[in-house]
Amino acid sequence: MKGHSGDASFWLELRRAGMQSFYEGVVVMKKMFICQTVTIVMLVVLCGPAVVMATSPPKQGGVLPDITLATPTDTTERDYLGLPGGDTFKIPQIKAEVVIIQIFSMYCPHCQREAPRVNELYRIMEETAGLKGRMKLIGIGTGNSPFEVDVFKKTYKAPFPLFADSDFSIHKSLGEVRTPYFIGVTIKGGGAHEVFYSKLGGFEKPQAFFELMVELSNLK
């Protein structure tokens, strides 16, 4: 009986030792997992693309967030914007005194209905004596790929440059505005600029909207 009792104690101690080793192994694995997770998060934060999310849209009298756009490959559009070259550009680099920015989406029914009126706005800007070339118009397709922007451009025959915002980074930097949204900016040279208009919604009368932009921007 003593022999059997000793054997039982031996196996019990062995089992306890095994369970202890098992739990210790689990703890080590958990620590390794946590360390790896923290490392991955830090790499994403430090090395990943920085997207600054604004809590509100640009305000009148303020400035735009740091927006980088791809330089158009089409020479007509590049000449329209007055860009010398390079792969990317900033909005204050556009050769104009005033830039009107339309934030749209090809899936936005309001933007689709608005398209003919925005095209008319562009025509008025280009045909008004004394103001041609001083006021430029661009569109940014929030969440739209270059392909989707191109589909919108061809479908609605937009005569002005449209740019993709595939990853919503520009949209986030603008406070995640709804569409269509219009922003008016005066360009002061040397990268300086000022927002003079920032509002949700389109317009019914292109001529009236054009005159409002001229008035608010003090474009003479």
Structural account:
There is one protein chain. With about 220 residues, the protein is α/β, with parallel strands linked by helices. It folds into two domains: about 1-50; about 70-215, Glutaredoxin (3-Layer(aba) Sandwich), CATH 3.40.30.10. It is about 45% helix and about 20% strand. The strands form two sheets. Strands 5-4-3-6-7 form a five-stranded mixed sheet. Strands 1-2 form a two-stranded antiparallel sheet. The longest helix is centred in the first third of the chain and has 46 residues, at about 1-45. The N and C termini lie far apart (about 110 Å). Residues about 35-50 have low confidence and may be disordered.
Question: Which helices and strands appear, and what pairs or packs with what?
Answer:
Blueprint: H1 2-47, E1 68-70, H2 75-81, E2 88-90, E3 98-104, H3 109-127, E4 135-142, H4 146-155, E5 162-165, H5 169-173, E6 181-189, E7 192-200, H6 206-217
Parallel strand pairs: 3-4, 4-5
Antiparallel strand pairs: 1-2, 3-6, 6-7
Helix pairs in contact: 3-6
